Structures are given as structure tokens and as C-alpha cells.
Request: fold
Amino acid sequence: MADVALGIDLAWTDGKTSGLCFMERTPRGWDLQEAIAETWSNEKIVDWVLRHSAGTTVVAIDAPLWIPNPTGTRDCDRTVASEYWKYLIGVYPCN
Reply:
């Protein structure tokens, strides 16, 4: 079981804000120790992860992907949008 959990939410473009959070397991459950949002370089993020890792660490990363898609929106993206629009659920197309 993990002693530390780190969350990383990367920005979509360089120079934009990314978010990082650090939680520790305690006898009461998970305690949020740090949550910050600022512009980060890759090196600064790696340093932050290494500084906050201890024992067994779980790292969750939400990162944008760039997938070349010359034909535009994928069929699966269109299907999700058409089926779930009434619930305000959609996807950001990978193109």
C-alpha cells in the first residue's frame, strides 16, 4: 500500500500553469500536504517528484497528448459527443 500519493496535472502548452499535489497516508486516511499551481519546467517537476517521494509512492499524471490526425475528429470522439451531450459529457478531440 502506498505511503505517498502525488498528482500531476500538466498544462496543454508551454508557459501555462500545471498543478501538483502531494498527499501522505496517515492513520486517519490521506492528508493533503501540498497543492500548488504554477508554470513548471520538466526538470522542476522531476525534482519535485523526487523530493516528495517516500517509501511506496503512487504518481497519477494527467497529461495532454498530441496525436497527428489529418482527417479531423475521430469517429469515436464524435460518437461519445453525440451519445453523451445531453449529460454535458464530451471529449477533447485528439487532433
Q: What stands out?
A: The chain is about 20% helix and 35% strand.
